[in-house]
């Protein structure tokens, strides 16, 4: 089953071309979008979830047009993006439990992810006092605690200590969806064991597609 189909996608931000003539087909499995900063990885993921509308070209995700069918698609896609703002005035518990009530997260998946990432150690502290790594774990919970057909993760391996990185890789390997899209600079060894498809981006284009 084709989960994502992109045909001749272009995305411009004023004079800057973030994606140029990108075509891509994603079926079931784990896909890594690999490349340096500014190569188009995160822009591609934002087009997938419907945060952005293509300047030119066509994209469908699970049969939907993401930017147009954002609400319906949102019921089937779970995502976490690097640098998403968090409500600093709330505790981690208030934020995650509130989000999960709205999203309909799985209680068992949430409890497992919280325990394995060590989030419960600072669960009831206000977010404004969190380190970058603590905030990163909260962002990951937005995706890892949800049941979805497609998981979209932007730089999930940064800012984590070794144990948290290992647990994140293990949780990703156990996600129940049809496909997982991950934008990253690195490929941790546990992720290599899932035999992902690797899509290499450079300057807004796909330069190579391979199986790890």
TrEMBL record:
Annotated ranges, domain ABC transporter: 4-212
SMART domains named among the record's database cross-references: AAA
Pfam short name (any one): ABC_tran
Annotated signal peptide: none
Protein's UniProt keywords contain Ubl conjugation: no
Gene3D superfamilies attached to this UniProt entry: P-loop containing nucleotide triphosphate hydrolases
Top-level taxon of origin: Archaea
GO MF term set: ATP binding; ATP hydrolysis activity
InterPro entries tied to this protein: AAA+_ATPase, ABC_transporter-like_ATP-bd, ABC_transporter-like_CS, ABC_Transporter_VariousFunc, P-loop_NTPase
Assigned keywords, A-Z: ATP-binding, Nucleotide-binding, Transport
Protein name listed in UniProt: ABC transporter ATP-binding protein
Upper taxonomic lineage: Archaea, Thermoproteota, Thermoprotei, Thermofilales, Thermofilaceae
């Amino acid at each position: 089953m084709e989960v994502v189909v992109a045909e001749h996608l272009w995305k411009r931000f004023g004079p800057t071309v973030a994606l140029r003539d990108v075509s891509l087909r994603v079926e079931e499995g784990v896909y890594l979008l690999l490349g340096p900063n500014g190569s188009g990885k995160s822009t591609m993921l934002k087009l997938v979830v419907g945060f952005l509308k293509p300047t030119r070209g066509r994209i469908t995700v699970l049969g939907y047009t993401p930017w147009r069918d954002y609400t319906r698609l949102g019921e089937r896609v779970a995502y976490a993006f690097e640098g998403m703002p968090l409500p600093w005035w709330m505790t981690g518990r208030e934020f995650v439990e509130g989000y999960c009530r709205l999203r309909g997260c799985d209680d068992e998946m949430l409890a497992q992810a919280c325990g394995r990432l060590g989030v419960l150690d600072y669960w009831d502290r206000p977010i404004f006092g969190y380190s970058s790594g603590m905030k990163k774990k909260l962002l990951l919970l937005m995706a890892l605690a949800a049941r979805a057909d497609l998981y979209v993760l932007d730089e999930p391996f940064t800012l984590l200590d070794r144990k948290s990185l290992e647990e994140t890789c293990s949780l990703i390997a156990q996600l129940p969806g049809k496909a997982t899209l991950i934008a990253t600079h690195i490929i941790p060894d546990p992720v290599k064991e899932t035999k992902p498809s690797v899509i290499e981006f450079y300057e807004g284009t796909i330069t190579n597609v391979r199986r790890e």
